[in-house]
Amino acid sequence: MAVWQGINSGEHTMLRVEVGRAGRYCDGLSRRSFVQLGLSGMAAWSLPDVMRARAAGSEAGKPGKDTSVLLIWLDGGPSHMDLYDLKPDAPAEYRGIWRPIRTNVPGMEISELFPRQAQVADKFSIVRSLYHDSGDHFTGGHFMLTGRGGVSGADTAGKNPSFASIAARVCGARRNGLPAYVSVPYASSIGLRPGYFGANYVGREYNPFETDGDPNGDQFQVRDLNLSAGLTIDRLEDRRGLTERFDAARRIVDASGAVDAMDQFEQQAYQLVAGSAARKAFDIAAEADETRELYGRNSWGQSVLLARRLVEAGSTVVTVHFGGWDHHWDLKAGMENHLPRVDQAVAGLLTDLDRRGLSQRVLVMICGEFSRTPRMNDGGNGGAPMSMGTPGRDHWGNAMFSILAGGGLRNGQVVGSTDRLGERPQSRPLTPGDLHATIYQVLGVDPHTAFADHAGRPTPAVAEGQVIDELV
Q: Which domains does the chain have, with CATH numbers?
């Protein structure tokens, strides 16, 4: 049965709702599930704690927009030279294996492995002049997700909150009963969970909720939405019993403010526990077969479809993890495996958002932590040339790309350019901070909003960066 507990842990007093056992988390600790319902990373937070934090965000100036962000994260670093910024006139060791094809936007060309996206290029824009100048996976991931450096392979711990966690804190969810910030199937930056997708000093309750599992599986279920044996929604709807459990908890918590918050947030917490909005949003099996085929019947395609369901239902930020882009060798096999799936998922998403009238409300972004070297290596990885398969590309943060679509932005554009070898920005150089400022503009978040870091220093949401004017 459900158990409401008052737990004193150091400086914090919390309540927990136990509704069944969950597996081990990435920190190695085994905990009981306590009705997360996507309330991002609440392992040590109660529902009233979360509601109090969201109310504080509202008092600080919660924006009135109804927009959301859907990020497709290409973990490992995809090559701009093989996806969206091909150089057909460069020497062979630079231009690579594939040729560009025309799109339905005059003058815009992309990889020949993206035929579906070529037909919907008027629905997205390409930023070709992005850079942060780091070839370290961890530094690059931290830059792209938090807008700041300060980490490396020798010191991988996150130092700052992700832009998504800041958005979750300031905006909350766009609809009651939905988690504000979700990662499908998990949040992972260079193998760290939630890594640089995490909230850091803005509060762990703004970490992403991770669905886990494979949305393409026949038996896919989102963890922690199941109730324990013998517990039903009808039993939860016994408001008298719920109130009695809160009253019992009141007697064992301190006077830190949680007691006063209970009355205010009890109804909201109850709605999250017993409401149907989240369960419906996560039920990907409810989608028509035609729609599921549009995205591709594979893990990546169905993860993107699930993400669409969540932003449509009212989540503010949803991230989708596409891993396996660290192609130091055998680039041909890697790209020919990955790019068709990306092509179908992205084209399907943009087509579906347009059909549903969601293009103006949902900003889609595609990027990774960095790009790959414009000059290909010999495919030997220290051995004989070609011994590891076809040549590959190594780490490169001096020139990279991002795709931005919808969200009220201007689509069908190419912003910036790289030089003839694709090594550095040639025009309109842009940074991760510029991307974040643009995202916050779409969401209605003031980029100057500051949060106290671990040392108590006020730290703005955007350190350096301006809205990309060409897109607004």
A: 47-235+281-471 (3.40.720.10)
